[in-house]
Amino acid sequence: MRIASFNINGIKARLPRLLEWLEETQPDVACLQEIKSQDDGFPAAEFEKIGYGAIWHGQKSFNGVAILARGTEPKETQRRLPGDDDDEQARYLEADVNGVRIATIYLPNGNPQPGPKFDYKLAWMKRLRAHAGGLWDLEMPVVLAGDYNVIPRDCDIWAKDAMRGDALRQPESMAAYRQILGDGWTDALATHYPQGGIWTYWDFQAGAWQQDHGFRIDHLLLSPHAADRLVASGVDKDHRGREKPSDHAPTWIELTD
């Protein structure tokens, strides 16, 4: 079972690239972030044509998440991250697909920091950790996939001193991520690439792609029941180099049946 995460950075603008990737790689589940589409504008019919069922949680102009499943319909289990009834941003969606509980996550960026946006990021991560604890108690395979907007380690960025002032690399952000791992969740890519050096994001500016100045912010975290089935993980890097791409590359895992 291949489960992928892809921050598409505008589903309407990148739809040709997204359909191309789906048809070439055929993931069983695709967790999308930053679809930047209201619910009524989501192109579900385009995915149905190539055999994917879909659920989505949209928002006008920014944010937005979706889950696609090949040959089946995802069974929604949670819309919006619990813990703050006033939070209306479309950043979390969860479903069951073929016996696996899967969440698509678009964690807040947090810039500029310090400030209210960074405070919101840390509060959101605290809520995520609390909700993940409930998922843990289900004792079933769970995958928390998405754009976490956290660079966990120095080896997860092209130069260890780059972006030190950014919210993605603040000690508080990194510590909050480590707390989730400390609860027993497995970072799939870090497991298979402990030395780092594998990127999931390259900025559109300053020739970042051409110079391979990237970093890793797209993560798939696995519960023990999922981690026991993990056999492979990787990044479809070549899709970042195609015409009019997202600034992220699809990131994926494979679980045994």
UniProtKB/TrEMBL annotation:
What is the protein name given in its UniProt record?
Exodeoxyribonuclease III
| Species | Sphingorhabdus arenilitoris
UniProt record similarity statement: Belongs to the DNA repair enzymes AP/ExoA family.
UniProt EC number: 3.1.11.2
Enzyme category, top tier: hydrolase
Region Disordered: start-end pairs = 234-257
Q: Which gene encodes it?
A: xth
List the InterPro entries hit by this protein, alphabetically.
AP_endonuc_1, Endo/exonu/phosph_ase_sf, Endo/exonuclease/phosphatase, ExoIII-like
Q: Which Gene3D superfamilies is this protein grouped with?
A: Endonuclease/exonuclease/phosphatase
Stretches assigned to coiled coil? none
Where does the record place Basic and acidic residues bias? Answer: 235-247
Lineage here is: Bacteria, Pseudomonadati, Pseudomonadota, Alphaproteobacteria, Sphingomonadales
Keywords, in A-Z order: Hydrolase, Magnesium, Metal-binding
- Mind listing the GO molecular function terms for this protein? double-stranded DNA 3'-5' DNA exonuclease activity
Q: Which cofactor does it need?
A: Mg(2+)
Q: Which PROSITE patterns match?
A: AP_NUCLEASE_F1_4
Among PANTHER family, the record links this protein to:
EXODEOXYRIBONUCLEASE III
